[in-house]
């Protein structure tokens, strides 16, 4: 049952036919959003893209619809792989950061020990 069928059952007002979509004149003709009245193409385009396929569609639409579904599935998989690569790269960079931070800390400690040893040696040389 379509929206137009419900409107016919529950409304006393006539239902107007526009293209393949039925509409009631109550809301669309007395728009609550006047700024949207200037964009009829956007509303019809979005309703077409959101519409469910009809059972009476021709055989010629089937390969096109199949291609669109296949393309959507490939795009979804590609997006999933991209997000996974992004997570993997972030994990790799975080691991490299941990490794370099540890190496930096070890080098700082080694430098402090070398400076302390040099100071001790300078002190010994100064006594001679």
UniProtKB/TrEMBL annotation:
UniProt entry keywords in alphabetical sequence: DNA-binding, Nucleus, Transcription, Transcription regulation
Domain of life: Eukaryota
Basic and acidic residues bias: start-end ranges: 74-86
GO cellular component, one term: nucleus
BZIP domain span: 65-128
CDD domains in the record: bZIP_GCN4 (cd12193)
Signal peptide: none
Region described as Disordered: spans on this chain: 1-86
Subcellular location, record wording: Nucleus
Keyword DNA repair among UniProt keywords: no
GO molecular function: DNA-binding transcription activator activity, RNA polymerase II-specific; RNA polymerase II transcription regulatory region sequence-specific DNA binding
Positions with biased composition (Polar residues): 8-33, 41-60
InterPro entries: bZIP, bZIP_sf
SUPFAM superfamilies the UniProt entry points to: Leucine zipper domain
Protein name from the UniProt record: BZIP domain-containing protein
Organism from which the protein derives: Zasmidium cellare ATCC 36951
